[in-house]
Write a structure and sequence with these properties.
Elements lengths: L8 E7 L9 E6 L2 E6 L13 H6 L1 E3 L7 E2 L13 H14 L4 E9 L5 E6 L2 H32 L3 H5 L4 H17 L1 H6 L3 H16 L1
Antiparallel strand pairs: 1-4, 1-6, 2-3, 4-5, 6-7
Length: 211
């Protein structure tokens, strides 16, 4: 079977690991009273893979000489794999070294809005399907954006010339004013504005009218 390559990369997620707090104790209530248990004696929580709790508690293998684990939101670099088989092989090897921990392969890929997204994957085919779904969504987003851009261009035909002379926000304000004039009439728009404001925008309106 030919190798399937996706545009993203893979990381190895680890659950069942936690930092031991030597000075932390957990107090539990029983019928006979309370019992205090050191944090080091309590196992790390395990959650169903891909559940919300799992995503909130997982660690990832860090990109450091000792391959220490780190949190995704820590800002520290993590170990990346270009090939699914490499990530899966690493996860299996580490699972043998740490049998009480659970290892999963996660695909990191840009979504349809070009934002990083993460997906738990178990096969190359699953990763390829995710990439295809994102590509389809991206095509739809691009189509809608193009439609919106065409509609905005038709509604604001003077934006190009206004942008040559004014900031983006100022140009949009003036373009909206031109659209109002077309819809309501110049006399109505002028009557709704203070004279000082009207004479302030008049040169810009003349610039648009010249086009």
């Amino acid at each position: 079977m030919p190798e399937i390559r996706v545009r993203g990369h893979y990381l190895v997620a680890v659950s069942g690991y936690k930092l031991r707090q030597s000075r932390t104790f957990h107090v539990f209530s029983t019928d006979e009273g309370h019992i205090s248990v050191p944090d080091r004696l309590l196992p790390a929580p395990l959650h169903e893979p891909d559940s919300m709790q799992w995503w909130e508690t997982i660690w990832v293998v860090g990109d450091n000489p000792r391959e220490r684990l780190c949190k995704l939101d820590s800002g520290k670099p993590y170990l990346r794999f270009a090939r699914f088989d490499d990530a899966l092989g690493y996860a299996a090897a580490r699972q043998k070294r740490f049998p009480r921990q659970e290892h999963q392969v996660v695909l990191v890929i840009q979504d349809e809005f070009d934002k990083p997204s993460m997906h738990l994957v178990r096969t190359e085919d699953e990763a390829a399907r995710i990439e295809e779904e994102i590509a389809q969504k991206r095509s739809e987003v691009e189509r809608l954006q193009a439609e919106y851009a065409r509609a905005r261009a038709a509604e604001h035909p003077y934006m190009p010339v206004l942008r040559e002379h004014f900031s983006r926000s100022r140009a949009w304000t003036l373009s909206d004013l031109v659209a109002r004039i077309k819809e309501e009439g110049i006399d109505a728009v002028r009557a709704s504005m203070p004279s000082s404001t009207w004479f302030d925008v008049l040169p810009a309106l003349s610039l648009a009218a010249a086009r």
